[in-house]
Amino acid sequence: MVRLITHNLLACHVKGCTSNNFPLEFKDVQVVVRQSEFNPDFLRGFIAKIEWTALVGAARELGDTSLPEMQPETLDDDFLHTLHHVLLEIHVEEGVMICPNCKHNYPISSGIPNMLLAEHEIG
Q1: Is 17 helix (H, G, I), strand (E, B) or coil?
Q2: Angstrom distance (rounded) from CA 122 to CA 64
Q3: 51 near 4, Cβ under 8 Å?
Q4: What share of the chain is helix, strand, coil (3-state, %, to 5)?
């Protein structure tokens, strides 16, 4: 499933595409929200792995403006609930992720991204 927790870890790996290949941009997406169990300890442990600017940008591409521009220093419950929603409850069901550098398209179908490359694209 393409959730923003997954998207925040994805970059383009087309041969020769080594700069400006993250984050992938969303286009023509269908988004659904699915509730999931809140786990504040997981979020506190995972937050250091997040590329914050990319997360905020992707959330805004999908219509969610709940995250602050800058990552807050205090991880209170309100913030953790907001982060949980953005990372784990917003699902991209259909659409495309596009590399900002080489413009390679990674289609999303039934919530599953196709990250496979053709043989000539592998580097």
Answers
A1: coil
A2: 34
A3: no
A4: 35, 25, 45
Contact yes or no for 43/80 (Cβ under 8 A):
yes
Q: Which residues of 18-41 are buried (b: 16+ CB within 10 A; e: fewer)?
A: eeebbbbebeebebeeeeeeeeee
Is the predicted pLDDT of residue 96 greater than 80, yes or no? yes
Give this prediction's pTM: 0.93
pLDDT band at 83 (very low <50, low <70, confident <90, very high): very high
Domains and CATH numbers, the chain: 2-121 (2.20.25.10)
Length of the chain: 123
Contact call for residues 117 and 21 (beta carbons, < 8 A): no
